[in-house]
Design a protein that fits this description.
Elements (H helix, E strand, L loop, with lengths): L1 E8 L2 E8 L18 H16 L5 E8 L4 E4 L8 E4 L2 E2 L4 E10 L9 E10 L16 H7 L5 H4 L13 E8 L1 E2 L6 E10 L1 E11 L9 E12 L8 E2 L3 E8 L7 H5 L3 E2 L2 E5 L4 E2 L4 E9 L11 E11 L2 E4 L6 E3 L15 E9 L6 E11 L4 E11 L3
Parallel strand pairs: 1-23, 18-25
Antiparallel strand pairs: 1-2, 3-4, 3-13, 5-7, 6-7, 7-11, 8-9, 8-12, 10-11, 12-13, 14-19, 15-17, 15-19, 16-17, 19-23, 20-21, 20-22, 20-24, 24-25
């Protein structure tokens, strides 16, 4: 289902498009075995490795997989440090949209950056199936029919059946990871969409380079316990706070499978997140978040004030670094057409040239106050400005 949500903040009105659909269910009557080719065997090995990881605690485990037998064995002597960063936004149909980014050291799984990636979200503490189900074979007719889809179905952000077991979310990608900075770890981003709740998230990686085809397949599985927040209730809340060094305006908003390739597109803006908080003077410091469930008065308008205060860190503590005018979202600043019932949302945003800051370490204190309910929320953003 494609849902267009208007997002309003100061003089900016955005259209937040987050598209979700139910998990693709496994056809229980389909007894067709998967083709015994190298690609499908690699996918089966990733699935088997995640099944094993479901028995293990959170963390990253390396497995060696025999593709022919689909047997996987943990290799306690091997270590592949992986990280997973997940952000959250309100979607539609009581779902939460979650763009995520994974990092892995270059060369940790073998030469090159071409990876096979299997993603699974399972209920917290869920155990693997008692027996490995038949793999899901790709139906050429279905693939052909998918190309003909129009309207709603073609625009859905949907998981795909991979393992033969229905999970809240699973997906498989073949991609080329790339470092976010010269000499940095390989990185890639994708989204998922699920209802609020506690989950075990699994990211399984294996090299797709030809050199990795000989011998056992090395697979790294990262398991993380995540809690997907509930923005669909009545509690005053903020989305994840996005920190970026670049925000680009798009002429065309990606949907469906295209949205998976650009998970940090919010409305018609593509955000380039900065996860390590490091900026150079030529960058723009952009902060972006959405405010949920602010109290609404008889005028159908909220009354929210956002305060941004940067502090510079020093050897004896923090000192205030310049003043920033508060952002006010109320009857006087919002468009006359603003109406929560129509799906309009409140955006908190700050855009400052990094050249305005001296070199050093900073903390940006954010305070969001709902004047009509008396409630307030705070969030801190740590960032560093490199010297010239």
């Amino acid at each position: 289902m494609r849902t267009t949500v208007q997002v309003t903040g100061l003089a900016t009105m955005l259209a937040l498009v987050v598209c979700v659909s139910p998990v693709a269910a496994q056809n229980k009557d389909d007894k067709t075995a998967a083709p015994a080719d190298a690609r499908q065997q690699a996918i089966d090995s990733l699935v088997s490795a995640v099944n094993e990881a479901m028995k293990a605690p959170a963390g990253t485990v390396v497995y060696m997989a025999d593709a022919a037998s689909r047997a996987v064995t943990a290799d306690p002597a091997a270590a592949v440090p992986m990280t997973l960063k997940v952000d959250y936004l309100k979607a539609s149909d009581n779902k939460i949209y979650a763009p995520f980014t994974v990092t892995v050291p270059a060369g940790a799984l073998g030469p090159g950056a071409n990876l096979g990636v299997y993603v699974r979200l399972a209920a917290r503490g869920a155990q693997p199936p008692a027996a490995q189900p038949a793999a899901v074979a790709e139906d050429p007719k279905k693939k052909k029919d998918d190309k003909k889809k129009k309207g709603k179905e073609a625009q859905d952000l949907a998981s795909q059946a991979v393992s033969g077991v229905e999970y809240p979310w699973e997906d498989y990608y073949e991609l080329a990871a790339a470092p976010r900075a010269p000499g940095g770890p390989l990185s890639f981003s994708r989204p998922f969409s699920v209802v609020t709740g506690d989950y075990d998230a699994y990211i399984a990686l294996a090299s797709r380079e030809p050199a990795a085809a000989a011998g056992p397949l090395k697979i790294a599985v990262h398991k993380a316990e995540i809690t997907v927040p509930n923005y669909w209730g009545s509690d005053f809340a903020l989305s994840s706070v996005f920190v970026a060094n670049k925000v680009s305006q798009l002429t065309e908003v990606p949907v469906g499978d295209a949205q998976k390739l650009k998970p940090y597109v919010i409305g018609n803006l593509e955000i380039s997140p900065v996860f390590d908080g490091k900026f150079v003077s030529a960058d723009e410091l952009s902060v972006f978040f959405i405010i949920y469930n602010a109290a609404i008065g008889d005028d159908k308008k909220p009354d929210v004030v956002i305060e941004f205060q940067p502090y510079k860190k020093g050897p004896v503590g923090e000192t205030t670094f310049r003043a920033v005018a508060p952002q006010k979202l109320n009857t006087e600043t919002l468009p006359a057409s603003f109406d929560v019932a129509q799906g309009h949302q409140l955006v908190g945003s700050l855009n400052v040239p990094v050249s305005a800051f001296e070199a050093g370490d900073y903390r940006l204190a954010i305070k969001v106050t709902d004047n009509k309910s008396g409630k307030s929320l705070t969030h801190d953003v740590a960032f560093t400005v490199a010297g010239s």
